[in-house]
Amino acid sequence: MSDQAERLRTLVRQLHGGEPSHRGRVLTVTSGKGGVGKSSLAINLALAIQRMGWRVCLFDADLGLANVDVMLGLTPTEDLTEVLRQGFDLQRCLVEGPLGLQVISGGSGFYELANLSDPQLERLLGQLTRLDDLFDVLVIDTGAGISRTVLSFVLSSLESILVTTPEPTAITDAYGMAKVIFSRRPEGQVRLVVNQARDAAEARAVAERINLVARRFLGREMDLLGYLPFDLQVREAVQAQVPFVLANPHARVSRLVAAMAEQILGARSRPLGFSGLLERMAGVFR
């Protein structure tokens, strides 16, 4: 067992001496390639879940290049640098967004945040576990790709949403991300979302293309959670810094996101609480 794995297990025991009183769900929204609409989906999905009466925290884990706060028109007064440097409580970084959604910004333009050491990452995950009693769902918007920091969040969650588009490069990178997840976290669930698809048929074709290779070489496949069509309202919402599920709640794209939220919340799951982040990370770094 590695020293890091032992440190993580010790931290879990320190944070939760007994059974936690509440067990929330952790959803990571990730992608193999940047520019596929991952953050937009994470924001609107988090709001759709919040609107259904759940207490949601959206954590922008694209550390050092975070933009969720900008997309929501928020101005955080505290950032993660203070949490990591001075040990501030992560709750000081919570900013209230639309519908009461709580947001934690990963900070932008800070080299330190983009290159966390193992102890810093452990400290951050440890702080996230303290939010377990405050929220029902933690949505983590990771960075794109398979960097160590991105994978630390993705592999620490049992429920991941993998965003892609019909572009060949995005499809290739989505499979690459799925391969890493399934090889390192076999028990994890990965759902696909195809963004900017012409229609449901194209989304299904993209999912089948990825799953064809995944079944052959990994012995696994991913469920298609849903798709989002190309819609100018999405671009306009980003420019206006107003999520499209709020700007145009009855638009087709908004209804599709609401359907994804209902599917996620209706699916059988075994919430392990936010402390599961540390427990699973310890397993990753055995």
From TrEMBL:
Residues binding ATP, per UniProt: K33, G34, G35, V36, G37, K38, S39, S40
GO terms classed as biological process: negative regulation of cell division
Molecular function as annotated in GO: ATP binding; ATP hydrolysis activity
InterPro entries: FlhG, MinD_FleN, P-loop_NTPase, ParA/MinD_ATPase, YlxH/NBP35
One Pfam match: ParA
Record keywords: ATP-binding, Nucleotide-binding
GO terms for cellular component: cytoplasmic side of plasma membrane; cytosol
Protein name: Cobyrinic acid a,c-diamide synthase
Source organism of this protein record: Limnochorda pilosa
